């Protein structure tokens, strides 16, 4: 990787504290959103889990999804929303600043006009988008802002799931809600490792400046000449940027009653690929959360050998392997890829342009008429799910992840600190905190 030294950087040291304030500002302001998102959320579905309890079934959880995309992703995001939709869940759609206002508006219009979404009002579109620099910290700032919106607007969810426009589900939400209803509500799915590999040199010791914080056009990050030491007051972890995190853990990260998330946000402001380390490092360094980690990102991905920056685009050739993995999501898919049609037909039973159906949508078995309610003759109870045999695959995977050979032994360990020396947390160049 070529290091792109910015000759003007030394004169711009003042930008660093600014950047941190900007990040904190973004997060704080999104907690009090004024008119920044279209489509208000209404909690229409009162939790009425008594029936399930009587049947000896655990209460169903709710997921809060963030679906992000960039220029040209509007169509894929709409399709992903239809495929992963369930009235119980919440969805926040974010098209970044690279996308045009008209594309964002079109997505918002779709959400407003679709009768199912109008009925359940559980989808929001971020109106004021953020610029996201690939690899820069604006990625993590944008995710944190989205989480703050979800915490503020939709209060009763259990897990946050982060998806991009090139992701796709491999099971219906009825299946996923059913399987997750049996899980302890404090499990966080984060694929992590303390082996930083190349990142130790290129990430942890290098200071980067994300131009996305100051400029309106997307570009790469700047590399500062100065280097810093590996921190000693916390241990760095890295891993997949796809996460499934619990609400209590995210509240801990956002509300910041503890110093750790704030300190790490500042540290990661100048860290390469912050979204591959921020949550991982917090969760692994805090005693209350260390033991809640499952070392899996729940995404099926295939990498080139040697691995590229992005996983390879999946095709029909991967279909069987993908299904057998038992993973609930997969990536990356090219837009309108034919394997997506196969997933719709064989796994989700989703008709083109329609939602993945479940117990929430009552159908007339012998009629194909598309009514005002789409294919639903009436809306069924959202507190009811109709799991299919696909849920067994996910169940099998989770049981394996949670068995005694995999669960505890693969959690993060703070022992064997590889750097014994006590080094100051921030090199001189960094903020004086
Ligand atoms: C969330 O999703 C996006 C996909 O748009 C991904 O690139 C990002 O790194 C993810 N993770 C976090 C922690 O933000
Ligand atoms: C987490 O697990 C480890 C090892 O299993 C145990 O020693 C430790 O006490 C646990 N921490 C908490 C807070 O439960
Ligand atoms: C995947 O497909 C997209 C087109 O949708 C293309 O732009 C991208 O380069 C492909 N990625 C890989 C790794 O082949
Ligand atoms: C994908 O399909 C949609 C609708 O069928 C179409 O509008 C869009 O242009 C297609 N995109 C690509 C990249 O083929």
Automatic annotation (TrEMBL):
One of its GO terms (cellular component) is membrane. Its main location: membrane. It is found in: Membrane. It is a single-pass type II membrane protein. Keywords: Glycoprotein, Glycosyltransferase, Membrane, Transferase. GO terms for molecular function: glucuronosyltransferase activity. It comes from the Eukaryota. PANTHER family: BETA-GLUCURONOSYLTRANSFERASE GLCAT14C, GLYCOSYLTRANSFERASE. This is Beta-glucuronosyltransferase GlcAT14C-like.
């Amino acid at each position: 990787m070529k290091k792109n030294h910015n000759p003007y950087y030394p004169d711009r040291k003042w930008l660093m504290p600014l950047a941190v304030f900007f990040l904190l500002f973004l997060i704080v302001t999104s907690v009090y959103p004024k008119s920044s998102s279209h489509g208000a959320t209404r909690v229409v579905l009162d939790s009425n889990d008594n029936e399930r309890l009587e049947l000896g079934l655990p209460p169903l959880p709710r997921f809060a999804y963030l679906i992000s995309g960039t220029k040209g992703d509007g169509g894929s995001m709409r399709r992903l929303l239809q495929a992963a939709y369930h009235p119980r869940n919440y969805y926040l759609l974010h098209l970044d600043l690279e996308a045009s206002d008209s594309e964002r508006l079109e997505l918002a219009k779709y959400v407003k006009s679709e009768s199912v979404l109008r009925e359940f009002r559980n989808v929001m579109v971020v109106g004021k988008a953020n610029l996201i620099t690939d690899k820069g910290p604006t990625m993590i700032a944008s995710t944190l802002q989205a989480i703050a919106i979800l915490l503020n607007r939709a209060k009763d969810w259990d897990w946050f799931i982060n998806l991009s426009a090139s992701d796709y589900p491999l099971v219906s939400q009825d299946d996923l809600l059913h399987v997750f209803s049996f899980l302890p509500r404090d499990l966080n799915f984060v694929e992590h490792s303390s082996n930083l590999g190349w990142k130790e040199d290129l990430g942890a010791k290098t200071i980067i400046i994300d131009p996305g914080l100051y400029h309106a056009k997307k570009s790469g990050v700047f590399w500062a000449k100065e280097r810093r030491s590996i921190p000693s007051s916390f241990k760095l972890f890295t891993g997949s940027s796809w996460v499934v995190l619990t609400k209590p853990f995210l509240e801990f990260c956002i509300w910041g009653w503890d110093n750790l998330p704030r300190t790490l946000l500042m540290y990661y402001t100048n860290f390469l690929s912050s979204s591959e380390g921020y949550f991982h490092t917090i969760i692994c360094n805090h005693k209350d959360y260390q033991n809640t980690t499952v070392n899996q990102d729940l995404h099926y991905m295939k990498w080139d050998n040697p691995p590229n920056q992005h996983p390879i685009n999946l095709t029909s050739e991967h279909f069987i392997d993908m299904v057998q993995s038992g993973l609930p999501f997969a990536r990356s898919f090219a837009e309108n890829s034919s394997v997506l049609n196969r997933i719709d037909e064989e796994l989700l039973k989703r008709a083109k342009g329609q939602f993945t159906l479940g117990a929430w949508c009552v159908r007339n078995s012998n009629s194909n008429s598309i009514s005002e309610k789409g294919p639903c003759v009436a809306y069924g109870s959202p507190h009811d799910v109709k799991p299919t045999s696909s849920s067994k695959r996910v169940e099998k995977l989770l049981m394996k992840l949670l068995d005694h050979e995999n669960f505890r032994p693969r959690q993060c360990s703070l022992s064997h600190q590889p750097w014994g020396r006590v080094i100051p947390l921030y090199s001189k160049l960094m903020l004086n905190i």
